[in-house]
Specification:
Layout: H1 12-24, E1 35-36, E2 61-69, H2 73-84, E3 90-93, H3 102-105, H4 117-120, H5 124-127, H6 138-151, E4 158-159, E5 164-170, E6 175-180, E7 185-193, E8 203-204, E9 215-218, H7 224-227, E10 242-246, H8 250-260, E11 265-270, E12 276-277, H9 286-291, H10 296-307, H11 321-326, H12 337-361, H13 365-370, E13 383-384, H14 388-391, E14 397-401, E15 409-410, E16 414-417, E17 420-423, E18 426-429, H15 439-443, H16 455-458, E19 477-479, H17 491-512, E20 516-519, H18 521-536, H19 539-543, H20 559-563, H21 571-583, E21 590-593
Parallel strand pairs: 2-3, 2-7, 3-4, 7-19, 9-18, 10-11, 10-18, 11-14, 12-13
Antiparallel strand pairs: 1-8, 5-6, 6-7, 15-16, 16-17, 20-21
Helix pairs in contact: 2-17, 17-21
Length: 594
């Protein structure tokens, strides 16, 4: 729907006031500090429930050309691209028990990708794999990651259940040394930090969280021993249980319907309502898939990215909720006030269809009103699901709206919200992953570069990179991250392009006999100016949004946090910067040694 009816839409002034009120009452003085790291007293929440707890192996000492930290899509695609360039002397280090990254950890019931499988799953033409559904389940995606590992001979290159504990650059040898939790000592010319955008789980810092005596876990560490069932089978052990789900974002939208089917009572604690459109899940049309011509996936990926960033392709190949809602980029501010008013009207009309869908589905008027999202369509990640809203019509499902404050406290027996205690047997934290926190915090170690300077020291005033990929002071350290890098609805598109860029840098250095490469500080400053210039176009939009990881919980912006922004323009424009840099054989903006 690219045109909407105006009659039932409240006035712009009315909605501006409502949006502002919803934003203001959710701003917290602790900002990003409201979340807890899964370490120390919270370390039990980070236990890997899927890996072999008795796994052991002997320490390894070896030298390779490239060490890749991370075995999700970013790490796997980097390895695959390196091999395509003839570079096979690499090692992948992964803390989990297998490949998959996010899709290793996210095995909660109902989990699936929210981007069409045919554009989300990389290398479908190379593997010949046909996704079984329009939106693949997490189980299928994890199995596909394993298929990638087998197809491209990555398993022999991987060290699983292994944490990197340190990495430092030796200037005399121009080599990196990486130490691990298994006692390994690995040296390499290049280190690729592909630690993942979504892998470090976070917990809300609720007072009393350590006092609860029932069962509790994060959705990315789902405990099927307690719930019974599996990602595809009913959780029969939840019968007779009282369950709390804390969170109403993309994870909760998928978890709630599954828990609702079995739990005696389900309490869903809401700080901010999510926006939930129609997913329209369906099986793959086999004949259609067979009819696709060579080159179809890249064409479809680019078409989708254009459609969701206001690129207006002539034909919308995907034609789903994403392309419908994001067809027009309404976050961009124009010097033409008439154009700004047009964009604002489009934004509120689309969000009004979301609010109307809530009213049409939720039978209780009070619950429906509390579940209507009053924020702009770019403020948070829109969700698409066919079962979430209907779940609240079940008599055993109860919405606990905290009016933007969040949960008050936990006790030995339950959850306190709005001054009322809700006794429960199980608390499920659907609180997502860290996204905009410091990179070294999410990596779990602090790389040390030239002169013994750590990344946390060098970036004490914020990130310094060229394209979000290379960092001065850290030769041959290559990053795949959204910190000063690209961002997009389809994360796998970003990861595919970033891994391609990283592999091409390694190849160029190997072919040309370059020992080290790092960006010049002036080039980093120039890139930062690009980021600021692009960001100015939509900064005002995000200031009006309710708090989320998109705007770092609306905490006050200083230069440090400003430096950690992403490229907020179209992902295709960001990719253009990478492609133009690769086309210039002088490796502009960098210093190299032979």
């Amino acid at each position: 729907m690219h045109d909407a009816e105006n009659d039932a839409v409240p006035s712009i002034d009315t909605l501006r006031e409502r949006y502002q009120a919803e934003r203001d009452k959710r701003i917290r003085p602790d900002g990003m500090a409201q979340w807890r790291e899964l370490k120390g007293e919270y370390e039990a929440f980070d236990r890997d429930p899927f890996a072999d707890p008795n796994f052991t192996r002997d320490p390894i000492t070896e030298e390779v050309t490239v060490i890749i930290v991370g075995g999700g899509f970013a790490g796997m695609l980097t390895a695959i691209d390196l091999a395509k360039h003839g570079i096979t002397n690499f090692r992948i280090v992964e803390k989990a028990g297998d490949f998959g990254g996010t899709w290793y950890w996210n095995r909660y019931p109902g989990c699936m990708c929210d981007v069409e499988s045919f554009v989300y799953l990389p290398l479908l033409e190379e593997t010949g794999y046909m996704p079984t559904e329009h939106y693949a389940s997490a189980t299928e995606i994890f199995q596909y990651c394993q298929l990638l590992g087998r197809t491209f001979d990555l398993y022999d290159k991987a060290l699983f259940q292994t944490d990197v504990t340190g990495a430092h650059f030796d200037e005399a040898s121009s080599r990196w040394t990486v130490e691990t939790s298994r006692g390994d000592t690995l040296t390499s010319q290049f280190v690729v930090l592909a630690g993942g955008i979504l892998h470090k789980a976070k917990l809300p810092g609720i007072p009393g969280i350590e006092t609860f005596k029932g069962n509790a876990f994060h959705t990315s560490r789902w405990d099927y021993r307690y719930t019974g069932g599996s990602a595809t089978a009913p959780m029969e052990k939840l019968k007779g249980k009282r369950v709390a789900v804390i969170g109403t974002g993309a994870t909760a939208v998928q978890v709630v319907p599954q828990v609702a089917k079995v739990a005696d009572e389900l309490y869903v604690f809401q700080r901010t309502p999510g926006a939930v459109g129609v997913r329209n899940q369906r099986p793959t049309d086999v004949e259609w898939f067979k009819s696709l011509q060579p080159g179809w996936q890249r064409e479809r990926i680019i078409n989708f990215t254009k459609a969701v960033t206001g690129g207006h392709p002539e034909v919308d190949l995907v034609n789903d909720g994403w392309t419908e809602f994001m067809w027009e980029d309404t976050q961009v501010q124009s010097s033409d006030e008439t154009e700004n008013e047009r964009l604002e009207r489009i934004d509120v009309e689309l969000m009004e269809t979301i609010r109307q869908r809530v009213a049409d589905i939720i039978e209780d008027p009070d619950t429906a009103e509390r579940m209507k999202p009053y924020w702009g369509k770019h403020c948070k990640r829109i969700c698409f699901h066919d079962e979430y809203l209907p779940a609240f019509n079940r008599p055993n499902v109860h919405l606990v709206d905290t009016e933007g404050r969040g949960v008050d406290a936990l006790t030995e027996h339950g959850v306190v919200a709005n001054g009322v205690e809700y006794p429960v047997d199980l608390i499920i934290y659907a609180s997502g992953f860290e996204v905009t926190t410091d990179l070294y915090r999410r990596l779990g170690f602090d790389p040390v570069g030239k002169g013994g300077v750590s990344l946390s020291e060098r970036w004490s005033d914020g990130a310094h990179t060229l394209h979000g990929v290379m960092a001065s002071g850290f030769p041959n350290m290559l990053l795949i991250s959204i910190v000063q890098g690209g961002f997009g609805t389809n994360f796998s598109h970003l990861l595919s392009e970033a891994s391609k860029h990283v592999a091409s840098i390694v190849e160029a250095c190997v072919d040309e006999g370059i020992q080290t490469i790092e960006p010049e500080p002036a080039a980093e400053d120039e890139w930062l100016n690009v980021l600021f210039t692009i960001g100015m176009g939509n900064g005002a939009y995000f200031q009006r949004c309710t708090p989320s990881f998109y705007n770092s919980e609306q905490q006050s912006i200083d230069m440090r946090s400003a430096r950690n922004l992403t490229y907020t323009g179209s992902l295709l424009d960001y990719v253009g910067y990478l492609e133009r840099w690769r086309e210039d054989s002088t490796h502009p903006g960098t210093t190299t040694t032979a």
